[in-house]
Design brief:
By secondary structure, the chain is mainly α. About 50% of the residues lie in helices and about 10% in strands. Strand 1 (about 100-105) and strand 2 form a beta hairpin. The longest helix is centred in the N-terminal third of the chain and has 20 residues, at about 5-25.
Length: about 140
Amino acid sequence: MDTHIDPAALAALRAELPAILHEGRSRGHDVDNDPYLQLDPDNLLQRYLIACDCDSTEAARRLRATLEWRQKWSVLDCHRPGVGRVLFCEDSNPGAEMYFADSGHCDLLGRPYMVGRGGYLNSANVHPWRHLQAAIFAV
């Protein structure tokens, strides 16, 4: 556990997590298959607490807001096979104007990195909504 975390605040947020997930399910978000929530829930809670100076009430509010945002923006759709091709290609997503992508390579520490090609952006063709959807996918 991170030394900046108040154990009582973490316990309070852990206790509230089932209710937060239930609320997300009730709104139609597939919280049980959302990797953001399922890969390392304890680390996730700690990150929210650090961001909120160990205020478990504020951390819970922000986590709820994150779940709402992920559902509203259909972030889970980004995990479907072939979505990148749909979001990045002009013929299937006109105006996305994507100029950055996964490089397919890793840095010296083994972390994947993205590349960008600003010269390939046609700002006259950018469709704000479609560009943002593709950017969310890339990030």
